[in-house]
Amino acid sequence: MPQKIQSSRILNEAQKVFLEIFAGSDMASDFVLSGGTALAAFYLEHRLSDDLDFFSHLPGHFPPTDSLRHWMERHLGQAIYNRIADRRQFSVSCEGVLLKVEFVPLYFSRLGSPVPVDGIYVDSLEDIAANKIIAMADRFDPKDFFDVWMIAKKTPLDIGSMVKLAERKHKANYRYLLHLERIIANPASLEAIRAVEVFDPHEVTSFFRTAVKKLALEAIPKISLNC
């Protein structure tokens, strides 16, 4: 892990304060930080992100919503609560900033063990990568495509490896579900991303144009030439 909480150049002060409080509580052992913020703050340092996304540590184990709300308000003051399907979303004022924190049950076993960092747990790179592929199939959010591009650029995981991780995790054929043409046709949608370094959106779309061909070739059954 390249960063600690306080030395992170990605996390803002509100996120740092929240994570420090969270790390000192009983809740820290129940949840694992994941998503784009975890990827950026603890692995790639590639973009800024405002929210904090947690999955429960174990499948089938999720604290009651009232317990989460009580904890948030006891430590951070009044919290605005919203539930969307299985997602528990809280908005709290922290360091003068409205911080969104989301808690989601874990439905699929992790590929790797969560990594302890300064009293909290962070999802493994493999799990975050797999979750990004799964998210890309479910929605169109340019940040997911940018994150996958950066994982392929900065780590040994290529797009094929990430798809295989997602398929191991969720037992679905994600290579057929990604609809990569959505980002290929919309390079301008990447311009809103708060990247740490300047990047060319067309480099991202070029990567996914190549990925379409790569995934298609990998999906073709190998034909034996032996008679």
Name its key features.
227 residues, alpha+beta, Nuclear Transport Factor 2, Chain: A, 5-stranded mixed β-sheet, two-stranded antiparallel sheet, 8 helices
Q: How would you describe the overall organization of this protein?
A:
Pfam families: AbiEii (PF08843). With 227 residues, the chain is an alpha+beta fold. The protein folds into two domains: 1-123, JHP933, nucleotidyltransferase-like core domain (Nuclear Transport Factor 2, Chain: A, Roll); 124-227. The protein has eight helices and seven strands. It has a five-stranded mixed beta sheet. It has a two-stranded antiparallel sheet with strand order 6-7. The longest helix has 19 residues, at 201-219. It is globular, with a radius of gyration of 19 Å.
Q: Tell me the strand order in the biggest sheet.
A: 1-2-5-4-3
Our estimate of the beta-strand percent is 15-25%
Spell out the helices and strands N to C: HEHEHEEEEEHHHHH
Oligomer: single chain
What is the second-level CATH architecture of the largest domain?
A: Roll
What structural category do the secondary elements indicate?
A: alpha+beta
Give the termini distance in whole angstroms.
Answer: 51 Å
CATH topology of the largest domain: Nuclear Transport Factor 2, Chain: A
Mean pLDDT: 91
CATH homologous superfamily caption of the largest domain: JHP933, nucleotidyltransferase-like core domain
Please report the first level of CATH classification, the CATH class of the largest domain: Alpha Beta
Count of individual domains: 2
The number of E-state strands comes to 7
Taking Cα atoms only, what radius of gyration do you get, to the nearest Å? Answer: 19 Å
**What's the overall geometry?**
globular
- Approximate helicity band: 40-55%
Which regions have little confidence, pLDDT < 50, spanning 5+ residues? none
